[in-house]
Amino acid sequence: MSPDPSVVRSLAVSAEDLTAALEANARDGPRTVLRATPPYSGRMRARLHVVQRDDEETLHVAPERLLTDTAPAYPTPDDTADELRADETETYTVERHRAYHERRVDEWRETVCDHVVDTATVPAVDHEVNISLLGP
Fold first, then answer.
1. d(CA 73, CA 67)
2. Taking the CB of residue 71, how many other CB atoms lie within 10 A of it?
3. Which residues are registered as beta bridge partners of 75?
4. Torsion over CA of 25, 27, 30 and 36, rounded to 10 degrees?
């Protein structure tokens, strides 16, 4: 165990924490990261954390760093409204939009973790670490 984050070689992250952090950041909420706290070891668990202030003692990882370039974008209400309006077989209504948007968000949640990288460069560590996704 060490106070130095450079000893970290692997981060384990739950699919639920990763998805929640990505979704919070996509919704323009408070800055949300995956955080590992000292003492550090070679394999650490990073958990969901809302940043209240920068803390140099903890390791903060932007959840977006853990995704491939081909990861689907979070579906915004404006995007799903445009998609629904572009469908010539559907008539746009607020109720249909709400249901469609919820379905698209659920689809995003089900697929985004299929795009997690095997390794990522973490700025505070300044080297690549292995990424292990826990859960579904």
1. 11
2. 18
3. none
4. -30
